[in-house]
Amino acid sequence: MSARFDTILKGGTIVNHDGVHQRDVGLAEGRIAALGTLDPAAAGEVIDCTGLHVLPGVIDPHVHLREPGAEHKENLASGSLSAVMGGVTAFFEMPNTKPETTTEEALADKVARATASAYCDFAFYVGATRENTDELGRLERLPGCCGVKVFMGASTGDLLIEDDAGVEAVLRTTARRVSFHSEDEYRLNARKSLQRPGDPSSHSDWRDVEAAVLGTERLVRLARMTGKRIHVLHVTTAPEMLFLSQHRDVATIEVTPQHLTLTLPDAYEVLGTKAQMNPPLRDRTQMEGLWLGLSQGAADTLGSDHAPHTLEEKAKSYPSSPSGMPGVQTLVPVMLDHVNAGRLTLERFVDLTAHGPQRVYGIANKGRLALGYDADITVVDLKRRRTITDDWIQSRCGWTPFVGRTVTGWPVGTIIRGQRVMWEGELLAAGGLGRPVRFQEALQPS
Ligand code: DOR
Ligand code: ZN
């Protein structure tokens, strides 16, 4: 081949839609320019990937980065730094900031802030409210928007549309797939007395399996009634997995590393309020239901639900303690450890972290190692054994629920549109290189 490349990834094992193959990857002008056996002399830079696996860039479609409004927990720079150190090449960020991302101005402000400071590519959800429902069809097509998010059950922040009529109105005014936090607010309100002060394990009694199942059943009925597509975020229960897999024409499914890894009662015994999140952690039976569904193709995407709170905030007594745990940096190592344990294949991991987000959100030019696609690449060492520590975490919150866990499988490199941002734990680029992810249903004239 006589073509010239900016960079060649040499000697790695590529995991992609067509299987697992030893192939070099040529990058030029930020895109994938060749896959095959490439002459190293044809590259400005050669990165030796011998013994490593070369994956399409890992996309985390579910993070909360707290800017603007709560930058003491996180900001777009620290959250995206945490992402790239963990092998993540792009994130989609939730709207429950202060102010909430519910207007064109708030969205444009986030895009401008991220363009100035982010270490990886990004997009933002627009949050649905009763006030902006009529406008969502326009807002969901704005540059940098990955779609609309609806909280059907109240969580961190004030965003909430709990009733069928409100959700139906959102589905009627939107054209893109809408993402949902699905817990039934009526049941949550009715059961609030089950919270036991000082005992975070009661969080899972209060926000029980049935609350999630009820929310999801209502949601699917509304999707059918309106003929619209829904994405159910952080599915945590076996019955929802089964139910949603009977509605694959309208519904897609996100799972999280923590709900696939941490279970009751141990999680609360070991982590206390650090294990508190919405929807809550569940018992082993529910987790096994998630794995069973995942192993049969039910899950579409893997989101970390990175929701940083400071240790001081988490140290408050339950239920004053906030819900949420960080996760964007640990998604890759925690899931590669599951790959090594035989719980999912590396191909399935790629499906969940690259092809899945592309399919669910309609990403224009990311999610595959294929000619012409953005050169977003996550390089991993499947054999590396390391212990996850709090001091490795770049998030401002400075802790991880996976502390002390020894995993096999580690992110070695993060390459974004051809630029090496992280290699062997070293940061090689400055903030401000991140750009908005583009979507098929919202392409802008260029
Ligand atoms: O546990 C959670 N924390 N669940 C959510 O829905 C929101 C998140 C947060 O923003 O802290
Ligand atoms: Zn979330």
Task: Provide the helix percentage.
Answer: 25-40%
Helix count equals 13
Bound ligand species: (4S)-2,6-dioxohexahydropyrimidine-4-carboxylic acid, zinc ion
How are strands sequenced across the largest beta sheet?
Answer: 8-9-10-11-12-13-14-15
Indicate the mean pLDDT: 97
The portion of residues forming beta strands comes to 15-25%
The biggest beta sheet is recorded as:
8 strands, parallel
Q: State the shape.
A: globular
| Helix/sheet category | alpha/beta
How many strand elements?
19
Gyration radius (Cα, Å) is: 21 Å
Distance between the termini: 31 Å
Q: Which spans have pLDDT < 50 for at least 5 consecutive residues?
A: none
Structure description:
The chain has 446 residues and is of the alpha/beta class. The chain is 27% helix and 23% strand. It contains 13 helices and 19 strands. It has an 8-stranded parallel β-sheet. Helix 4 packs across helix 7 and helix 8 packs parallel to helix 10. The longest helix has 18 residues. The radius of gyration is 21 Å and the shape is globular. The chain starts with a strand and ends in a 19-residue tail after the last strand. The model has no long low-confidence stretch (mean pLDDT 97).
